[in-house]
Structures are given as structure tokens and as C-alpha cells.
């Protein structure tokens, strides 16, 4: 018994401002064109014809951090690269999100040594971690879907949720 | 071209500088003095019969505990004869230095810089010997055997609380 | 030689500019730049739009692979080689496996040899497809990327069928293969072979005679054969200058001498010739894969790892029956095998050029030193030589044509 029923014939939809804003943000998310290592190739694979990331409004990669609102850290972050990653992140306008794609970006992966930062979360705050070495394009898409759901739950107060970790391996569909 | 022909030619020209000759699985490697290393590379490159014009590989090895401690290994290839020969030269602390091959083979430039960066071997005569892979302000040479791997404790479910408590997570 | 070949460092360009001794402009390109194919940083010295000098600054992806390998056993270190040149993991596997096998002196069964040749040639096609797609993308030909990745997915499906992983297969192990090829392997490859030649024609239709493509590539980034050899340029970049040097022919490995194929070469050493050479290489690879498929079919089932029990674990069935096999299995998985003291160098023709692996053994189960001669790393040196006097836009085409993979540059 709300206004929807009364106003239904007039073509009016009522909702909350939060939902509209978040809906807008999820469906036109512009990732930063930013690849580091092996995972970047799978990211390219996700954007190519077979997996077609543009189904989710994610195909428009911006080369400039000023125009991007999602950073997909695709690959291992070396100690030499870490300040650059942070600088790129700082240049992105709010609101912004980060996906750590792959084991190296999430925790250092198999490279537990002097050269690699053990998880990009030491450099930039991460919203979603995607497991895999490298993650399949399906896994990346799953991570992006998770981020979309997370963005939908966001409050206008700007308070962020804790990061989402993919805890179970994906069922691989052949 | 076979190993014996190259070796005989090397013995004729830089015979006095040869310290050791080794043949392992059909590959010839010749250990030389620093002066002989440069002379042998020049001879192999310029001799029209041999024509080892292509420096395929150059790297350093740290034999910690052996004298001399470091060894620089260069693989020269003759594209005409489809044959490869390996030149080795030792150098020791405190100032490991070997002559640079960059004036002879421009391709040695990056490879020598890499060896300098990761092992701390100096190349006398190199036009611009600076760090290449690591940041300029890096301390140490990671491929040396006395340099630690630098690994950190891996977080599993049983110890992650302890590790995450002191892990420097980034802030917005 | 007219002038000596120099390879500048970033400092050599930056310092005079900072001190105000030059009239030119210094521009930083990368490490985050869409056309640098990864995290390559270039320091450009420009006079207007003309490149006076350029110095690559590498190391933004330095992974410490060589150091990490020293702390793993020989067999475990295979996994690390995959991540070096991530567009051709199987070539890396092969190079490392061949080097260690040379140290050990083991013989590889024929079925494994054929499978190795077959899969590395498929890998070469898939790697060249990524090169083609991104190269065209850099020169604003978007659609080629979508076509090239369509076929690449098919090759990745074959790898997945074989090893369970799309990219990082770790399928070539020391002593042979990780496990036998699946039953429907040959039909799947043949399905791919049936369509691939016509698909290559399709790419050529899009680019080979395209006036925009010709404008951007013909006569750009020229290097002569002598300078190319002096700078250590290898692979398709060298062959585009007219030097028919291919390790598969010059110093054959894995039985390449028994396959019939040609080495495509160029004439002018420009970007267009490199493009033609790589396209022709894809056709040759298809030919090799065809021959290898026929051989596999003729050969029938057989062992895929060496029978040397000191190197390769015995089959599971034997472990339950023989005490000796159980001991071998236990020793191999707890300690690993111990190659004799010595060093070995092996080079192969990877999609990017001559990939070399130098392994030193001190008689322990872990390698004392592993060094990779990374073709991308050494090819990058010639960038300044080729780019001088050209426009900035040509530089973008030039980097793409060199086809560097930064994971391999920095290791």
C-alpha cells in the first residue's frame, strides 16, 4: 500500500536516492587501462569477443586515471612499481574501487621474495580479491559482479564495507 | 666447426691466458684471465674464418666459498658455423671487476648492467654502468648467495590473525 | 659502420636536461601507458615531435625469478618459468627443461618430444595472435584484436584440455611431460588446424594491403642486419632484416630437424617486414603442428616421461607393487634429483627470439644458479637505434613491433 500503486499508471517509480546512485555507478564503471603481468592478458581475454565484458558496461577502459573509477590490479606488484600504483590510485577521483586480480596482487602468490610486494593491499585499499594464477576470465567477471553487488549496498554516508575474499574455488564449467 | 678447431685457434692466439678448458655434454667452455677474456672475444669476433659475431648470452655466477668468488660467463655464437663457445672469467672480492665486452658487442650493454645490478660485478670500460632492474636507491645485490631471499611468512587460516595484525595495510 | 651504436640510459637523457644544457624536451612515457605493453617506462628526448633519443627504463616488473629458483628443487622451479614470458609459458618450460635435461643427460621418449614440438608451435601461434591484436590496436585497428583473440581462445582451450590450465600450464616437466595427452587431443587440434589457415587469410585481408597500415609501418623503424646482430636482436625482428637465423634450424632441439618447414625472412628490416615475417611464421607453425599431429597418430600411445627412475617418478601402478619404485617416488618428492656438477646452456627459438637458459649445478637437488637470456630484454636495446629521427607516433608502432613482454624483460 504505497505510492507505487496509486502512481503506477502515471509512469512514476519511487525509490531511494542511494539505489539510483549506486545503480548508476555499477552500470557504467570505467576501469583503468592498467595491466601489470600475466593477469593482464586474461583481463584482455575477458574484454575480447569470447567473454565480452561489455555485457556489464565495463568495456570502456580509460587510459587516464582521472577518468577511471575502478582499478584492476592485474599482476604482481614489484617494489619499484608500488609507488607508481599508489600514485595512480591517488589520482583517481572518488568514489573509486580496487580489484586485486590474481594471487600475486592478492598475497604475493608464488613469488615470496625480495622483489614483490606481498599483496597490493599494502599499497592501495582493496575491495575484492580474485583468486587464481591467473584467474580465468570467468573468475574476473565473478569478481566484478561481486563488486557491483557491493557497490549496490553502499551508503551515501560513504562508509565502505570490509573487503570481499573469494573463499571457494570457482566451479569450472566446460 | 667443432670444439677442437676453435680451441686450437684460441690456443694459438691467446694460449698463455687460458686457465682451464672444459667440455661438458659437448659444449666447450674456456676459462681465461681477464686480459685473455677480452682478447679471446675480440679474436673470435674478428677472425674471418671463425666469425663469432653474435654475443648470445652474458651473465654472472656467485660461487660463494670458492676462489675466485665470482665468474662471468659469455656465450658467443657463430651464426655462419652454427656453433657456440663459452668464455668464462673469474673475479674476486672486494672489488670484483672484469673487462667489459660492450665496446666489442653493443648487446652486452644491458646484460652487463643486469649482472652489475644483481651481482655487483663491475665491468671496466662499460659506458654507463648503472642499476637497471632494481630502483637506483636499492641497497645490496640480490643474486649474491649471502643475500637473503627476503621472503615473508605466508598467511594461512591458523596464523592469519597474527600476521594481519602487523601487516601494513594501506589506507585510503 | 657510420657511427658507433650506443644504448642510452635514462640518466644520460635526464641529467643534461635538468642542468639546462639542452634545447630539447624530455618526456616521460610510462610505466603506465596504454601502448607500452606492460610497465615499460621510456624517457624520450624530443625536438618538437621528432625523437632525438629514447632510453627504456625497465625493472618495474622485476620479480626475482632467478633468485627464487635457487631456493626450489629443479622440478618445482618449472612453475616459476611459466610466469616469465607469460605469452609463451610452454616455450619457457621447454627451455628450462632442456637445460636441466642436458645437465642430467637423460633421453626423452619420442611421444613427449612430438607433443613438445606440437604444443610450443601452438604457443607460438597464440603468442603471435596477441602480438597481432595489440599491435593493430596500437595503430587504431580495433577489430583485429577481436578476431585474433577469438582464435587464441581456441588454442587456450587445447592447453586447458591438455593440462587443466589456460595459460600457466607447467606441462613440460624435466624428463618429459607432466602427464599423457588426453584421448580427444588429436581431433581437437585437427579441428583447429582446419580453420586456422583461413583465419590467417582473414587477418591479412584486414591489414596486409590496408593503406593506413602501410602508411604507418612501411619504412618505419628500419634496422640493418649488421646492427641488428651487434645489438643482439633475435627472432622475427632479426629475420625481418634478411638474416635467416632460426635456432630450430641452426641448432635443432626436440627433433625439429625432422620437420619440414621454412624460415620466413624479410628484406628491409622495417615494421612491415616484421609483420609479414610473423604472419608467415604462423603459417609455418600450422604446418609443423600438422606434421606433429600425424606423427602422434602414427606413433600411438606410449610413455611420455623418461624411464630413468632417478629423474621421473614411476607410474602409480608400480608403486603399489615394487618396493624400489616406492623408494624412488619418496626420494623424488621429498628431496628431488641431483644432477652432476657442471653447467649447461641451451637456447631455443621462442616466439620473441632466442630464449636461452644457463643452469649451474653444484650436485645438490636445488639449482645453484639459473639465468635466462630473455629475448625481449635484449631486443629492447635496439629501440633507440631504430627510433632516432622518427616521430613519437612511430615509436608506438615500433614498441609493438618489437613485441616485448615485460615479465620476461624484468624477470
Labels describing this entry:
heterotrimer, B: 172 residues, alpha/beta, Beta Polymerase, domain 2, 5-stranded mixed beta sheet, two-stranded parallel ribbon, 4 helices, 7 strands, 26% helix, elongated, C: 411 residues, mainly alpha, Cytochrome-c3 Hydrogenase, chain B, 3-stranded antiparallel beta sheet, 8 strands, 11% strand
The low-confidence runs of chain B, each spanning 5 or more residues with pLDDT under 50, are none
Instruction: Based on Cα principal axes, name the global outline of chain A.
Output: elongated
CATH architecture heading of chain A: 3-Layer(aba) Sandwich
CATH hierarchy, class of chain B: Alpha Beta
- CATH fold category name of chain A: Rossmann fold
What value does the average pLDDT of chain A take?
Answer: 83
Tell the overall outline of chain B: elongated
Number of domains of chain A: 1
How would you sum up the major sheet of chain B? 5 strands, mixed
User: Which CATH architecture of chain B would you pick?
Assistant: 2-Layer Sandwich
CATH topology of chain B: Beta Polymerase, domain 2
- How can the largest sheet of chain A be summarized? 4 strands, parallel
Helix segment count of chain B?
4
Walkthrough of the structure:
- The complex is a heterotrimer of chains A (174), B (172) and C (411).
- Chain A has 174 residues and is α/β, with parallel strands linked by helices.
- Chain A has one domain (29-155): Rossmann fold, CATH 3.40.50.
- Chain A has helices at residues 3-7, 17-27, 38-47, 82-91, 102-107, 137-152; strands at 70-74, 97-101, 128-130, 164-165.
- In chain A, strand 1 (70-74), helix 4 and strand 2 (97-101) form a beta-alpha-beta unit.
- In chain A, helix 3 (38-47) crosses helix 6.
- Helices cover 26% and strands 27% of the residues of chain B.
- Chain B is elongated and about 70 Å long.
- Chain B starts with a helix and ends in a 6-residue tail after the last helix.
- Chain B has one domain: 2-Layer Sandwich (Beta Polymerase, domain 2), CATH 3.30.460.
- Chain C is globular, with a radius of gyration of 22 Å.
- With 411 residues, chain C is mainly alpha-helical.
Strand-helix topology:
The complex is a heterotrimer of chains A (174), B (172) and C (411).
Chain A: H1 3-7, H2 17-27, H3 38-47, E1 70-74, H4 82-91, E2 97-101, H5 102-107, E3 128-130, H6 137-152, E4 164-165
Parallel strand pairs in A: 1-2, 2-3, 3-4
Helix pairs in contact in A: 2-6, 3-6
Chain B: H1 3-14, E1 18-24, E2 27-32, H2 34-46, E3 54-62, E4 70-78, E5 83-91, E6 97-99, H3 108-119, E7 122-124, H4 160-166
Parallel strand pairs in B: 2-5, 6-7
Antiparallel strand pairs in B: 1-2, 3-4, 4-5
Chain C: H1 10-18, E1 25-29, E2 41-47, E3 50-57, H2 65-69, H3 78-82, H4 89-104, H5 110-138, H6 142-163, E4 172-173, E5 176-177, H7 185-207, H8 211-217, H9 225-230, H10 236-239, H11 247-250, H12 271-299, H13 316-319, H14 323-334, E6 342-350, E7 353-361, E8 369-373, H15 375-379, H16 383-387, H17 392-402, H18 406-410
Antiparallel strand pairs in C: 1-2, 2-3, 4-5, 6-7, 7-8
Helix pairs in contact in C: 4-5, 5-6, 5-12, 5-17, 6-7, 7-12
Amino acid at each position: 500500500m504505497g505510492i507505487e500503486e496509486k502512481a503506477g499508471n502515471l509512469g512514476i517509480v519511487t525509490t531511494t536516492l542511494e539505489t539510483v546512485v549506486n545503480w548508476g555507478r555499477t552500470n557504467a564503471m570505467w576501469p583503468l587501462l592498467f595491466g601489470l603481468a600475466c593477469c593482464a592478458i586474461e583481463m584482455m581475454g575477458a574484454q575480447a569477443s569470447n567473454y565480452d565484458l561489455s555485457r556489464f558496461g565495463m568495456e570502456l577502459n580509460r587510459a587516464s586515471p582521472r577518468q577511471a573509477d575502478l582499478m584492476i590490479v592485474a599482476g604482481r606488484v614489484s617494489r619499484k612499481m608500488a609507488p607508481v600504483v599508489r600514485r595512480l590510485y591517488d589520482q583517481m577521483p572518488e568514489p573509486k574501487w580496487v580489484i586485486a586480480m590474481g594471487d600475486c596482487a592478492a598475497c604475493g602468490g608464488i613469488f615470496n621474495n625480495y622483489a614483490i610486494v606481498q599483496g597490493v593491499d599494502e599499497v592501495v585499499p582493496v575491495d575484492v580479491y580474485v583468486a587464481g594464477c591467473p584467474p580465468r576470465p570467468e573468475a574476473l567477471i565473478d569478481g566484478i559482479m561481486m563488486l557491483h553487488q557491493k557497490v549496490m549496498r553502499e551508503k551515501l554516508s560513504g562508509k565502505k564495507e570490509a573487503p570481499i575474499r573469494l573463499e571457494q574455488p570457482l566451479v569450472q564449467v566446460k | 666447426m667443432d670444439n677442437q678447431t676453435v680451441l686450437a685457434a684460441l690456443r694459438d692466439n691467446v694460449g698463455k691466458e687460458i686457465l682451464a678448458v672444459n667440455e661438458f655434454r659437448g659444449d666447450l667452455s674456456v676459462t681465461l684471465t681477464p686480459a685473455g677474456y677480452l682478447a679471446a672475444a675480440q679474436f673470435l669476433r674478428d677472425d674471418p674464418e671463425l666469425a663469432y659475431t653474435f654475443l648470445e648470452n652474458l651473465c654472472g655466477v656467485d660461487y660463494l666459498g670458492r676462489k675466485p668468488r665470482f665468474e662471468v660467463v659469455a656465450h658467443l655464437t657463430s651464426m655462419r658455423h652454427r656453433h657456440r663457445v663459452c668464455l668464462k672469467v673469474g673475479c674476486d672480492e672486494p672489488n670484483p671487476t672484469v673487462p667489459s665486452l660492450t665496446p666489442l658487442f653493443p648487446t652486452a650493454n644491458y646484460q652487463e648492467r643486469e649482472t652489475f645490478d644483481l651481482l655487483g660485478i663491475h665491468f671496466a670500460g662499460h659506458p654507463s654502468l648503472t642499476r637497471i632492474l632494481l630502483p637506483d636507491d636499492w641497497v645490496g645485490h640480490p643474486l649474491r648467495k649471502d643475500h637473503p631471499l627476503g621472503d615473508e611468512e605466508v598467511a594461512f587460516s591458523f596464523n592469519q590473525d597474527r600476521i594481519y595484525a602487523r601487516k601494513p595495510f594501506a589506507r585510503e | 659502420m657510420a657511427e658507433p651504436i650506443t644504448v642510452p640510459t635514462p640518466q644520460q637523457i635526464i641529467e643534461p636536461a635538468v642542468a639546462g644544457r639542452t634545447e630539447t624536451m624530455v618526456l616521460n612515457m610510462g610505466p603506465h601507458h596504454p601502448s607500452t605493453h606492460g610497465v615499460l617506462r621510456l624517457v624520450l628526448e624530443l625536438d618538437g615531435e621528432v625523437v632525438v633519443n629514447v632510453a627504456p627504463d625497465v625493472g618495474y616488473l622485476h620479480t626475482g625469478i632467478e633468485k627464487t629458483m635457487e631456493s626450489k628443487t629443479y622440478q618445482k622451479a618449472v612453475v616459476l618459468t611459466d610466469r616469465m614470458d607469460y605469452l609463451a609459458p610452454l616455450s619457457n618450460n621447454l627451455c628450462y627443461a632442456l637445460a636441466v635435461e642436458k645437465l642430467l643427460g637423460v633421453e626423452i621418449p619420442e611421444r613427449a618430444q612430438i607433443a613438445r614440438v606440437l604444443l610450443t608451435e601452438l604457443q607460438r601461434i597464440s603468442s603471435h595472435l596477441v602480438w597481432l591484436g595489440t599491435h593493430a590496436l596500437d595503430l587504431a585497428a580495433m577489430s583485429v584484436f577481436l578476431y585474433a583473440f577469438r582464435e587464441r581462445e581456441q588454442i587456450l582451450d587445447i592447453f586447458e584440455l591438455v593440462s587443466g590450465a589456460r595459460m600457466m600450464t607447467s606441462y613440460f616437466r624435466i624428463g618429459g611431460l607432466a602427464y599423457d595427452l588426453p584421448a580427444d587431443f588429436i581431433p581437437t587440434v585437427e579441428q583447429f588446424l582446419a580453420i586456422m589457415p583461413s583465419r590467417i587469410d582473414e587477418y591479412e585481408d584486414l591489414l596486409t594491403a590496408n593503406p593506413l597500415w602501410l602508411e604507418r609501418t612501411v619504412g618505419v623503424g628500419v634496422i640493418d642486419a649488421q646492427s641488428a646482430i651487434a645489438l643482439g636482436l633475435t627472432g622475427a625482428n632479426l629475420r625481418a632484416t634478411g638474416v635467416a637465423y632460426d635456432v630450430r634450424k641452426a641448432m635443432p632441439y626436440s627433433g625439429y630437424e625432422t620437420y619440414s618447414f621454412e624460415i620466413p625472412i624479410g628484406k628491409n628490416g622495417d615494421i612491415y617486414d616484421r609483420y609479414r615475417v610473423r604472419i608467415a611464421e604462423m603459417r609455418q607453425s600450422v604446418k609443423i603442428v600438422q606434421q606433429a599431429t600425424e606423427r602422434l597418430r602414427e606413433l600411438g600411445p606410449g610413455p611420455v616421461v623418461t624411464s630413468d627412475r632417478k629423474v621421473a617418478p614411476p607410474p602409480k601402478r608400480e608403486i603399489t607393487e615394487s618396493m624400489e619404485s616406492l623408494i624412488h617416488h619418496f626420494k623424488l618428492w621429498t628431496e628431488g634429483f641431483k644432477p652432476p656438477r657442471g653447467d649447461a646452456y641451451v637456447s631455443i627459438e621462442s616466439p620473441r627470439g632466442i630464449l636461452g637458459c644457463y643452469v649451474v649445478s653444484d650436485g645438490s637437488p636445488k639449482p645453484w644458479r639459473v639465468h635466462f637470456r630473455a629475448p625481449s630484454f635484449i631486443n629492447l636495446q635496439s629501440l633507440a637505434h631504430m627510433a632516432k629521427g622518427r616521430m613519437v607516433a612511430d615509436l608506438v608502432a615500433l614498441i609493438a613491433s618489437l613485441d616485448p613482454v615485460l615479465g620476461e624483460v624484468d624477470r
